[in-house]
Amino acid sequence: MGSSSSSMDHIPNAEELMQETGFSAAHLLRLYERFEFLDKDQTGELRPEDFGAIGGLALNPIGDRIISAFFSPGQETVDFPSFVRVLAHFRPNGTNRTRNGTQQEPVNSRTRKLKFAFQLYDQDRDGKISRAELLQVLRAMLGIQVTEEQLQSIAERAIQEADLDRDDAISFDEFKKVQQVSPHPQTPTKETPLHPTEGGR
Amino acid sequence: MTWSTFPVDNLLCRCLGISITVWWTFLFVFIIIPAVFGVSFGMRRFYMRTLLKIFEWAMLRMEMGAKEKNQELYKPYSNGIIAKEPPSSLQQEMQELRGSAGCLRSEPEFEMADIFYFCRRGVESIVDDEVTKCFSAQELESWNLLTRSNYNFRHISLRVTVLWGFGVLVRYGVLLPLRVTLAVTGISLLLVLTTLVGFLPNRELRSFLSEKVHLMCYRICVRALTAIITYHNRENKPQNGGICVANHTTPIDVIILANDGCYSLVGQAHGGLMGMIQRAMVKSSPHIWFERSEVKDRHLVAKRLGDHVADKTKQPILIFPEGTCINNTSVMMFKKGSFEIACTVYPVAIKYDPRFGDAFWNSSKFGMVNYLLRMMSSWAIVCSVWYLPPMNREEGEDAVQFANRVKAAIAAQGGLVDLIWDGGLKRTKVKDAFKEEQQKLYSQVLVGDRSQCSDMNHLAVKVHINV
């Protein structure tokens, strides 16, 4: 562990990646070591099985979906830049530095995070969460703990609340609206539940 | 004394002679004699305080340097890859997500945002998961001038680099030879003296002297590592006829504990130098060494341990139930074998301070010699030892429950995380039961189960699974 074992030279296009994702050199190095660790057979790319080996992910009810979020449709492997780009969505917000003063949206903005979560629901990437897809996610999160009827009624209520244009599916805009509308009495201007306060250990 | 006729040689010889004499005097007076008598000058603590001040200064300079260059330092807890949440239960986080005060609902109410919780946990475990973390060295918030423990060290500040260079010189040029000398002295004394004591016919005298000899040699070894140990609650020290269990981080744990009391060690008989030391130790005090073939035979092991504890004149046995080295941030599952023997268990918690040197032995990365070299070229090994009150197996408790109870006590005292994973399964195939437990917790949030509303404090799944 530490800079004695690997250096920035091993990372392809490090500068570009840093610019694009906003990670600093030290963070990138740390991620690269993690990538190498996960890549058991040293091919330089990760496969779904490599993710599957992580204990904490295997017990996560939506673990498979999170894993497939790393893989672009049709691709079977993930290389380091793609790995980092996905993780960049979760970078802490307070560390945004606009390196070249661009107008484009930072990678870890709220919208990008919401998009990531949206894609967890919308597996066929058609831009809408259908009733069937919602049911699948609910089933994954609840398992055998609730009955089929309860599941159906939960899905029904969720769609009714969110679906504004009555097309029986939830688009990304409707998804975004739902997040804003839900009442947060204690945390009125809390940006997003994905940005927990810097409460370190 | 007649001097030789060559002035240069003469000068060189004299210099060499004087420096060696000074070296040995220093060693003898300040280190070995106090070790023999168990006295301390307090130099090591002073050294520790000085080092801390230096580390703080170095960290400040690095932060300044990083600000100038507009880079960021990687700090695992305050500036990590992902904003980390303090560990809380699923219930608590869901409530925060929803912003609702009450947890009683008449109907299940799902919100689309609930997926964020699982999403974040999942991504956190991709970046860093519990099991892997236990088997790799702990990450530090601030740097301790050892290259091996830092992601940020990349010539950020000139002064820090110079300090680091100076540190390397001191560690490898001064401290390492000193420590190696001490270690060699300590081990050879152990070998010689225990063999001598073993020849004595009188049993009482023999055990009395062997205790003194063991303690003395371990004290020298402790100084060889510059180990600064603080013992707490010494009134709970293990007594004869009991078993002492402790969490395992490194083979040095043995030296740390044996510095303060005499224990009987349990282990496999090795060959080579280790074997010689083992045979010598056995001559003067009863240790339990197993041949490789005997290790598999659980009944034999249990019988020998049982016989040992039944004899009240024999020292307490020292056992590390985790079975493998863990990196001292958490405690893994205890193997139940040592808890099946009917006797008092004395738990001991050992916590190392990682700022001065990482004591964890990553056996997949480093061999023994490499590891010892790293140990002896760190700044110091600083640790705290807590002796916990003795525990006995209660009525109706089986060995596994007893083991878990002891483990929880040790984890609580040492400030370590109490994990369910088994140390032997470094790459666990997670059982479906764990996933079900997560699902159950979530469904309880939805359904608003009354009995669960009050205080489910830790997400760590306390499922009783016999792994």
From TrEMBL, chain A:
PANTHER family: EG:114D9.1 PROTEIN-RELATED (PTHR46002). Pfam families: EF-hand_7 (PF13499). This is Calcineurin B homologous protein 2 isoform X1. It is found in: Cell membrane; Cytoplasm; Nucleus. Its main location: membrane. It comes from the Eukaryota. SUPFAM superfamilies: EF-hand (SSF47473). One of its GO terms (cellular component) is cytoplasm. Belongs to the calcineurin regulatory subunit family. CHP subfamily. Residues 109-144, 150-185 form the EF-hand domain. One of its GO terms (biological process) is protein transport.
UniProtKB/TrEMBL annotation, chain B:
This is Glycerol-3-phosphate acyltransferase 4. Its main location: membrane. One of its GO terms (molecular function) is glycerol-3-phosphate O-acyltransferase activity. Belongs to the 1-acyl-sn-glycerol-3-phosphate acyltransferase family. Residues 242-353 form the Phospholipid/glycerol acyltransferase domain. InterPro entries: LPCAT1-like, Plipid/glycerol_acylTrfase. The chain crosses the membrane at residues 20-43, 156-174, 180-200. It comes from Lates calcarifer. It comes from the Eukaryota. GO terms for cellular component: endoplasmic reticulum; membrane. Keywords: Acyltransferase, Lipid biosynthesis, Lipid metabolism, Membrane, Phospholipid biosynthesis, Phospholipid metabolism, Transferase, Transmembrane, Transmembrane helix. It is found in: Membrane. It holds the Pfam family Acyltransferase.
